[in-house]
Each structure stands twice: as structure tokens, then as C-alpha cells.
From TrEMBL:
Domain of life where this protein originates: Bacteria
Species annotation: Novipirellula rosea
Signal peptide annotation: none
The STAS domain, residue ranges: 42-109
Pfam (any one): STAS
InterPro entries attached to this UniProt entry: STAS_dom (IPR002645), STAS_dom_sf (IPR036513)
Cross-referenced Gene3D superfamilies: STAS domain
Protein name, as recorded: STAS domain-containing protein
PANTHER family: ANTI-SIGMA FACTOR ANTAGONIST TM_1081-RELATED-RELATED (PTHR33495)
Amino acid sequence: MFECSKQGSVFVLSGNDPLSRDHTVELAGHCEKCFGHGQPKIVFDLRNIPLLDSAGLEFLLDLRDRCLQHGGAIHLAALNPLCTEILQATELDRDFAISDDVVSAVGSFSR
């Protein structure tokens, strides 16, 4: 299950299901909330995400591109060891701002 909350002007996406093809439709619905308010600022909290598969990685890249097209950005936060390993193995860790925790990621938008 995924949810979207807001901390100031930053949307925080979180969940505890795998970021996989089976869950990207649900997540896409939550993401729509982020694009109706000017430049989207999104933090994706990966702390409880047990797995990222190829569809999940593609989803993150598409979300990043959509944010950039609207003048915004996405930051990843609180990556668990497996998600860190997957992003490093695919070299996608270079394509995202990554923070140790959600508070740091949200705060990075005010710098």
C-alpha cells in the first residue's frame, strides 16, 4: 500500500509494497496529486519498500522526467540496503538526489 502526504510544499510518497509492475498503477494515482500545484517537489521514502524491479525503476525515471518537465524535482530518501544495492548496480543512483532520511530530503528543497 502506498500513500501520499505533504510536508509544507513537498509531497512525500511512501509505502510498504514492492515498487513493481503490480503496484505502479496504484502509485501513479498518488503521484497525480503532486502535479496540480505548480512545480512538483516530491520525496519518495523508500525505507519500507522491500524491492525495486525493472518496472519500478522505470516508474522512478518517468516520475523524475515528469517532475523536471514541470520545473520540479524528486528526491529519494531512506533507502534500505536492497534498494541501495539495486540503484547502485543499475547506476541509477547517479540520476537521483538521495538523502539518508525524509527530513533531510524535504529540507533539501529549501536550499
